[in-house]
Write a structure and sequence with these properties.
heterodimer, A: 320 residues, mainly alpha, flat, B: 390 residues, mainly beta, 2 domains, five-stranded antiparallel sheet
Chain lengths: 320, 390
């Protein structure tokens, strides 16, 4: 019996082992194939060409093509090779003094490399040309030129000219948070803190995590002697730093002292949202909504929070 | 028989039963894995799609590879079998390049009889028969080619084709005729088999088709950016029977008007529908997606504002078979994905950022997905099509 049992059990053991090996082989084959099919780059595909090298080669082949040279200059600008960008654009300007793209490249490259004085003339010339073009009121390139021009004015200690320039820029692009922030900075530098905080406020409405804008806003409120509002801006700096508990505590304090200040209630709602306290977030945002019914930022945040609450409720229901 | 021997025999039998059970479990597992492998070979979808798990688990796609160089690509589409990728170039010779699944260029074609300055292909769509529809901003028309790039016909307005226009002038268009439209010269060229070139007057009707998408039923959704009349047209599939359309009278439905209010568009770039028949229109210059019900009533817009799901300058869009809406944002240098299967869109993820490296975009313009979970993105200023995979 024993020997017979052994005689039966040995082949059964082998069958189990064979089946286990076949299973392991099938899993390995499928896993390898899946990985190869979805993750391994197909052979022979050319890597994305280096656009700088490509353009340099093209300019060497066609040195008299101004547009090609300007493409290269813009590519240098993108790669923060400001001197190279200026060199290429100035070669174009030598042959075509009115080439507006070249003026812009030279101006922006000078501005970005800290040569504010040198940037002003080419940018002013570009702006002069661009203002005459049809569609100037919507021209985002003109807006960019105005931004850099204003930045240079500020660096040169000429904030009043920066204000005028930036007011034109934000008329072209009212949703450019950087331009609004710079406008606020320029206004603050001229001592117009009341208008400055409005500009900062518009900037943070577009980008709620705009740390520098809150900081500058706090400084302007301090200058105006508006302590509660300065505390609001400092709490929002904590929010931008992702220190949501500090932001919440600071904003609760502000809300207690200034009940009708909608931005603080919005900030409080955003902080609660980040902390996962959706009930409190909804209450804060609804209060903000009552104060500012047309605020897109409030409506969006409220929509997000209510959707998160619905999702959580749905998960609880399916879990139970 | 001793008690010891009986006990040993019983244990051996129990062990044998356990081994037998284990053996059959392993066999069942082998069959299951082999079946899964076979299913994947026949229908190469991502594992979560092949083996649906309970709940909505979204796994982000990953960057896979980039195609060979294409010149400033602005439109991309995939053939129904996923083997060919059609790419409209806005730079160089302004052609439509044909790529294989590995991203290699295997062919190219363009508007017939045109010099490079007379054509500007933008968006591409492929119907279930594999025909390639290309919108052209200079031609002001949709050019239609077969899968290999042979020119078939041209849609000159929502209710007029080039072959129909020629037939109106000469009576009939014989098999083997060659014709093309020179939009700059405002001339239609026609050559009957064995005859010389005849020039016919240009059509009076005109439009400015831009975005093209076929829906699940085979209807063609076209965005129209005719000055002052931005709108969306749907051309029913019945209109595209046959190869040339000398009797082109589709029951065209037009949706929306120009403007920035609810139900209005400013440069609608593309439009497509979800599994519930809701229409999604990329309202490009209003920076939003406009949503309409199947009856053509405006429902709501989304995408304006701040936050991860906010759109800057949306361009191409695609809805996959799980109702995930993929929107290319040209200025935010990303592809944003929303789940639109519910009553309101839910933002899922933003893919990519500005740059030139792997998975980074430089003014992307269009997106298309195939049935295997591959996502193709026309990465315009990087001169490539990026391939991502779920």
């Amino acid at each position: 019996m024993v020997s017979t049992d052994r005689g039966v059990s040995v082949p059964r053991d082998r069958r189990v082992w064979v089946a286990a090996i076949v299973l392991a082989a099938l899993i390995a084959a499928f896993a390898l194939y899946y990985y190869y099919d979805r993750y391994v780059t197909p052979g022979g595909v050319a890597e994305a060409p280096d656009p700088v090298a490509q353009l340099e080669q093209a300019v060497r082949a066609t040195p008299d093509d101004p547009d090609l040279r300007l493409n290269l200059a813009e590519m240098y600008l993108l790669h923060r090779r400001y001197d190279d960008a200026v060199a290429q654009a100035e070669q174009v300007l030598a042959a075509y003094p009115d080439k507006d793209r070249a003026l812009l490249v030279v101006g922006v490259a000078h501005s970005l490399s800290g040569r504010a004085e040198e940037s002003l003339a080419p940018l002013a010339e570009f702006v002069r040309i661009a203002r005459k073009a049809p569609g100037a009121a919507l021209d985002t390139t003109l807006e960019a030129a105005l931004y850099y021009q204003a930045d240079s004015y500020l660096k040169l200690g000429r904030p009043a000219e920066a204000v005028t320039t930036l007011e034109e820029a934000v008329q072209i692009s009212p949703t450019d948070a950087d331009a609004l922030y710079l406008l606020g900075t320029a206004l603050a530098a001229t001592g117009e803190h009341r208008r400055a905080v409005k500009a900062f406020g518009r900037a943070v409405a577009l980008v709620p995590q705009f740390r520098e804008s809150y900081q500058a806003m706090a400084a302007s409120y301090d200058a105006l002697g508006r302590q509660v509002l300065a505390d609001y801006a400092r709490a929002m700096v904590a929010f931008a730093d992702k220190d949501y508990a500090t932001a919440r505590d600071g904003l609760l304090d502000v809300v207690a002292r200034r009940k009708g200040f909608a931005p603080a209630r919005l900030g409080l709602g955003l902080a609660y949202e980040q902390l996962g306290d959706f009930e409190s977030a909804r209450a804060a945002l609804r209060a903000a909504g009552k104060l500012e019914p047309d605020s897109v930022a409030v409506q969006q945040a409220l929509g997000r929070v209510e959707a998160a609450m619905e999702q959580a409720a749905g998960q609880e229901a399916s879990g139970s | 028989m001793s008690v010891v021997a009986e006990t040993a025999g019983a244990e051996t039998r129990r062990g044998g039963r356990r081994r037998k059970l284990l053996f059959w479990l392993l066999v069942a597992a082998c069959v299951a894995v082999a079946a899964l492998f076979l299913l994947y070979l026949l229908n190469p979808k991502p594992l979560p799609d092949l083996v649906p798990l309970p709940g909505s688990i979204y796994s982000e796609p990953h960057y896979f590879f980039s195609s060979a160089k294409v010149d400033k690509p602005v439109g991309v589409a995939v053939s129904p079998d996923g083997r060919r990728i059609y790419v409209a170039e806005s730079g160089g010779e302004r052609l439509v390049k044909v790529l294989d699944r590995d991203g290699q260029v295997i062919g190219q074609f363009g508007a017939p009889g045109t010099a490079v300055g007379a054509r500007a292909p933008v968006y591409v769509a492929v119907d279930q028969a594999g025909r390639v529809f290309v919108s052209d901003r200079i031609q002001g028309a949709i050019l239609v080619f077969d899968a290999d790039g042979r020119f078939l016909d041209e849609i000159l307005s929502p209710t007029l084709t080039l072959s129909e226009h020629i037939a109106e002038h000469i009576g009939e268009v014989p098999e083997g005729s060659v014709f093309w439209y020179d939009a700059l010269a405002r001339q239609v060229h026609y050559q009957a088999p064995g005859e010389g070139d005849a020039v016919l007057p240009a059509p009076r009707e005109a439009w400015s088709p831009l975005g093209l998408r076929f829906d699940r039923d085979g209807d063609l959704w076209v965005t129209d950016v005719t000055e002052g009349a931005h709108s969306v047209h749907v051309l029913p599939r019945e209109a595209f029977a046959g190869e040339r359309w000398t009797d082109f009278e589709p029951q065209v439905r037009t949706i929306g008007e120009m403007g920035n209010g609810p139900g209005q568009f400013a440069f609608p770039n593309s439009a497509t529908v979800d599994s519930q028949g809701r229409l999604y229109v990329v309202d490009g210059n209003n920076g939003r997606i406009s949503v309409w019900d199947a009856q053509g009533t405006a429902l709501y817009e989304f995408g304006r504002g701040v936050g991860d799901g906010a759109l800057g300058l949306p361009r191409g869009l695609w809805i996959d078979d799980k109702d995930r809406l993929h929107v290319v944002d040209a200025v935010k240098q990303s592809v944003k994905v929303f789940d639109v299967s519910g009553d309101t869109p839910e933002f899922l993820v933003s893919l990519g950022s500005f740059g030139m490296g792997e998975g980074a975009f430089n003014y992307p313009n269009d997106v298309a997905l195939d049935g295997s979970g591959r996502m193709y993105v026309a990465d315009r200023e990087n001169d490539r099509v990026q391939v991502w995979s779920y």
